[in-house]
Structures are given as C-alpha cells and as structure tokens.
Amino acid sequence: MQQIINFVIRNKTFLLFLLLFSVALALTIQSHSYHRSKFINSANVLSGGVYSTVSSIDKYFDLEKENKILAEENKRLRERLLNNSNASHTSGIDTILSEKKFRITIAEIFKNSYSRTNNYLTINKGNKDSIKQDFGVITSKGIVGIVDNTSDNYATVLSILNKKSRINAKLKSSDHKGSLTWDGNSPFITQLEDISTFAPVKVGDTIETGGESAIFPKGISIGTIESFETDISGDTYTLQVKLFNDMTNIRSIYIIEHLDKNEIINLESSIDE
Amino acid sequence: MNSVTLSNSIRFILLLLAQVIICNNINFFGFINPYIYILFIFLFPIRKNRMILLLTSFLLGLLIDIFSDSGGVHAAAAVSLAYIRPILLKSSFGTLYEHQSVKFRNTEPGSLITYLILGTLPHHLILFSLEIFNISSILLILKKTLFSSIFTIILSLIIIILFSRNKK
C-alpha cells in the first residue's frame, strides 16, 4: 500500500497528464461521431454571448453588401410571384387544397468556419424560437447545412463543409440521386457521390436537393457540375460540384422546418420493424 | 492574489479572446490559422507548480474547443505541450533553466526562437492529427502543421517583442 501511494506521489504530474489527455481524447472521439458533441459546442451562454457581441459590431461593416443581396433576392422573388400569379389563373384548383408544409425562420450567423475538416456555424436562434435538431439551413442562393445542437438562444449548424455531412441531392435535368459529401479540401467545391452512370451528366449542369429526406424540401439549388469521373467500381460517377453559395462569406440565413417531418419519420420507422 | 497570478490570469483571458475572435478567422490562403493561445503555456512562470500549468492548459484548450466546436483537440494538444515543456526549456535554454533563472524578456533571441519552434511543432502536429483523425490524410496533416506553425511562430515572436518593450 505504502508503495502504491509513493508511486502515485512520485508520478503525480504524469498521472494528471494522462488523466487530462484521456478526457480530451474521449471528447475528440465523441465529436467525430454524428450528433454526439453534446457538451463541447458553441451553442451556450458563454460563447454565444461573446460571439453575439462581436457580431453586433462586425455587421455594420457589410451592411451595404447585405442590402444588395436582399435586393437581388427581392427582385427574384417578385419575378417569380408575377409569373406565378399569371399561371394560377389557369389552374387554380390545387392551390386551395394544399396545406402549408414548411415553416421558415430567419436567422443570422455569428460564427462562420470553413478552413477545418469539420466545420460548424453558430447562429442566433435556438429553442426559444422553436429551432430543433435536424432542421435545414439555407441562404437565398443555396444550402448551408443542418441544425446540430441547440440551446435556449443559440444553435450550432453542421455545415455542408463537414466530413460528417451527407445530404441527399439530385441532378436538376433528371431524377438521378446521390449523396453530397465533402473531401475537406476547397470550401467552394463539394462532391456528389453515387450518381448512376446512366445519368446524363454534363459539366455546367445544376445540382439541387433531392427531397428524399425530411430535412430539405425538393429543388433547393446547390451548385453546378465542375467535373466528373467514374468510380473504381465503374458503376457510379463522383461529381465535383461548385457551390452557388460562397460559404466563406455568408450572414443572413433561413431555417426550414418540415411540418410533416414526424409523420414521415414514423411512417418510415414502421416499415423497418 | 499576487501580481504574477494576476498578470497570468489577464494573459489567459486576452489570449483566449484574441484566438477565438481574431485568429480563428484569419484563414490565410484559405486554411492557415495561427494558434497564439499557446503563448500562455510558453510564458507560464517556470517556478510555479507543474500541476497548475497542466490544469490551466487543459482549461484553456477546452475553452477554445467550446468556442470553435472542435471536440477536445485543443485541450489534448495544449495538455501535451504543457507536459513536455520542461524538456523544451532544458534543450533550448540549457544551464539557465537548471539554475531556474530563465527570464523570457531578456534571453538570447536564438534560444527563444528554438524554444518556440520546438514547442509549436509537436503541438500543431497533435492538434491537426486529432482534428483530421484519418491516417490516410497524413499529407494534409503535415501541410497544415508546417504552414500554421510558421505563422504561429512569427506571430508569437512579434507579440513577445512588442509586449516586452512596453514593460521596460
């Protein structure tokens, strides 16, 4: 017993190092599995508070650019509205019956990150604005990511620039579907995997969300095809997709809630049983 | 609270804020960020207890991790750096360290640069290995380690020189 105590006292620095290092390692490994980084995330009062203070000063510097983006979006929406109202006069039957399927919340990014291999964003809406895990996040140009952790006033978003991210996407010209992933290299290019070689792939074609998951609605634009190559197996293409969004420079975002999500998930889980 | 504890606490807070607000957003060439918070571990008083250094380094790393959503990678790297610090001091300052009389403000620039290089490289290597966590991306890990280390070392030297002038 005496020897054990002596050993501990003699090596106390090393033992403390070992303890702290294994705690850190455990947290790291935990953070590498999806939706597990519960304790160490920036959606808390301390970091959220600091980021919101900094952001409130910082946002004055690009007000002009934000205004321009909003004006462009307004123009696009107005064009679509005018074109749509003409069309609905001819076939206005379904529009009365269709219910609201999505709820949209506007939010602002406090902390952006794109230089690491697993990137997260911090936004200024949380539980109090009924933001929950697995809501989709987009901008006026394209998709950004999926809500990961939430606290009362803040939330973290798993960016599409994250090795853990897999988003269902398809070609706009046909209905061939695949998963959007990221290889960790350039913040402007993502990869679309598992597109069948039967698909009519052309450089410059548009990629949009597939709407198979209950997170993003169908048809939100993602980017254009930069180049493509056949996989080792020879059955599928991997496409390099140039994003419409400049992920290094975003501030205003929209959070999408799919109102029928629980219904879809319940239905799908009942098939598995 | 004496003046050494006070100045170290202030340094802790200032470096934490500088890291998360400024340095994490530099993204030089798209991926190079300096990690100047390790200056806290470099400049921690030598005569103080090593246990306190280990604990404060862990806390600093963990806070950086919370701010940048990176799990525990900074905590692991910071604790490792704090643990190997005596070896670094011995190999870069030699007899000065054995007499416990190293003063960072008026040492030779050569030994100071050696000390910074020897400490920054292993810290960044552990940091990026854990962050990328994939042995097949070893080239990416080495590339990030090298470029970020150069940036960190230069910035750290500048900070040390600037702040030691003020005190004289």
**Whole-number count of domains of chain A:** 2
Instruction: Please state the oligomeric state of the protein chains shown.
Output: heterodimer
Mean of all residue-level pLDDT scores of chain B: 87
- The helix fraction of chain B, in percent, is over 70%
Shape of chain A: globular
The biggest beta sheet of chain B is recorded as: none
Please report the number of helical segments of chain B.
Answer: 7
Total helix count of chain A? Answer: 6
Task: Give the mean pLDDT of chain A.
Answer: 84
Give the count of structural domains of chain B. Answer: 1
First and last CA, distance of chain B: 23 Å
For this structure, what is the CATH homologous superfamily of the largest domain in chain A? Rod shape-determining protein MreC, domain 1
Unreliable stretches of chain A (pLDDT < 50, length at least 5) are: 88-97
Give the class of chain A from helix and strand content and strand pairing. alpha+beta
CATH fold name of the largest domain in chain A? Thrombin, subunit H
- Indicate the CATH class of the largest domain in chain A: Mainly Beta
Largest sheet strand order of chain A? 1-2-5-4-3-12
Please describe the structure with a list of short key phrases separated by commas or semicolons.
heterodimer, A: 273 residues, alpha+beta, Thrombin, subunit H, 2 domains, 6-stranded antiparallel β-barrel, 6-stranded antiparallel beta barrel, 6 helices, 32% helix, 30% strand, globular, B: 168 residues, mainly alpha, 73% helix
